Amino acid sequence: MLSRPKTTHRPPSTKEVLTTFETAALCHVNPLSVRNWIDQGKLPAYRTPGGHRRILRENLEGFLREHGMPLDVSSAPRILIVDDEQAIVDLVERAVLEALPAAQVESAGNGFDAGKKVHSFRPDLMVLDLKLPGLDGFQVCSDLKADDRTQHIQVIATTGYYTQENVDRILACGASHCFKKPIDFAEFQRQLQTLLGFRVEPHSLAL
CB under 8 Å to 49, separation ≥6 — which residues? Predict the structure, then answer.
């Protein structure tokens, strides 16, 4: 059974210092856009000893006011799980919420529903099965990354048909990582940490 761990995570809306990924999620843009704003001197930022960029929330709010851009105050990380197996959806959701208790999680059972939820739910990250009824995961990911409005969404792929060909293909479509089923949830949580920029307390999962 999954235990609920202690965590240092707080929703970005309450944080005084933001990562580029958190800033991108708040602004609904690609993280590259945030890095460009910083490089062009439009958005003040500093670097940590490890070289990571950090943005003070007050500076981001000033930047957004100056450019007439809205600040999304409901900025807890939003995760969309796309899989036609409800048991997998349940396990992934439990793993997400164990790592990020404040996360908002929704699911879709096929590629077409995933497309609708992308625009209504506006996820920061999608956990995407490759083999789906109708529109498969490859096409869903390709469509996501081809649209300026959704290309910032991070994609973690999953598949029961784990071959190098499938891995190479989904990464070429724009996914950040591809997991073999059954999913290594410890590594999955580390990927969430990396892609969303939150610190997850180390712990073990028994699924």
Answer: none
